[in-house]
Every structure is written in structure tokens, then in C-alpha cells.
Amino acid sequence: MSEKLSDVFLNPAIKEFGDALRKMIMVAEDYGTLVEIEYTETSDQFKEVLWKFLRRLHTKKYRKPSERDLEGLIKLVDIYGVKQIRAALLAHALVKKGGEQ
Fold first, then answer.
1. Which of 31, 34, 67, 84 would be a feasible disulfide site paired with 80, CB 3.0-4.6 Å?
2. CA–CA separation, 17 vs 27, rounded Å?
3. Mean pLDDT within 34-47
4. CB of 60 within 8 A of CB of 28?
């Protein structure tokens, strides 16, 4: 198993979900998912938080990650574990994207 951070942090699924989470935080000022992800420890907890997050995105009518991104994210959890994927998602959500203030 590769342990490179770039395998996780540069993965398109991480970027898409991180961008969606950033939008929920920055635009909708919805911190619920951020807090829930932060305290997720197990695959079952991650699955539940992910479902709630996608439901929140749907209600806000924001662009959702694709089915391919969802599958990619789940595969990453299986390979690297919840803690590494959680860290990558939160990092992507909390950094300033090009053009943002």
C-alpha cells in the first residue's frame, strides 16, 4: 500500500467533496457537516456523515460530487482509513481556493 500523502490529497474525489464542503461552510455557513466529519472515527460513522452531507447539499441545491467521486471516496476510505480521508477532506474544505477571498 502506498503511503504517499499526494495519493490521498490530490485525488479527484477528495477535491470534489472538499470543494462541496467548502461551499457549505463559506456560502451557506453550514458548519454541521464540518463538525460531524471532524469527529468521525469509524467507517460506519463516516458513511452516516457522508449521507447527511449529501442530503444537505441537495437541499441547498448546490452542485453535488458525481457518482464516480462517491465511489472513489469510499475506495479511499477502504484503502487508507477514515482518519486520513477525514484529514484530507477537512484540509481541502478549509483552504482558500484560487480566486476566493
1. 84
2. 15
3. 94
4. yes
